[in-house]
Amino acid sequence: MWFALTIVVSVIALSHGVPQCTELGEYAMQRDVKDDLIPKILRYSPGQDIASVSSVYDCDLEKMASDLLTKTYKTLDFLKPIGIYPLIYSIDGRDENNVRLMTHAALQTWKNYIEDIPFLTFGCNYRYENGMHNYLCLLRHKAE
């Protein structure tokens, strides 16, 4: 019981520390999705020594993820050579209102990768377009 309560309190505390990245304007991730997704990514990265969410969350990577999600002609091949590992997830979700369920599905798909890739910083974004929930998280796993 105490263990479950500790996890819930930790996730709530982490969600309050998620940077808003307001300077991104239209490229910023939808706030409710961000508050749900980011703390859970940190929870699945047990090897990370994280002082605060803002020390590992990168607004520039959030913008890059937005650019990649909105420009379908872009390939993700250029990311790995520059030290960025992409986690992408898309699912048909006829209803935009079930975004929490879709976020959970994305996290379950990514869980093993997040646990195995030590990252320095990361940034994510989400778009709902044409009946599809599209998620992209970029994990910077080596210094530039």
From TrEMBL:
Originating gene: Acey_s0457.g1807
> Which UniProt keywords are present, listed alphabetically?
Signal
Please give one Pfam family short name: ASPRs
As given in the record, the signal peptide range reads: 1-17
Q: Say which species the protein is native to.
A: Ancylostoma ceylanicum
The protein's name is SCP domain-containing protein
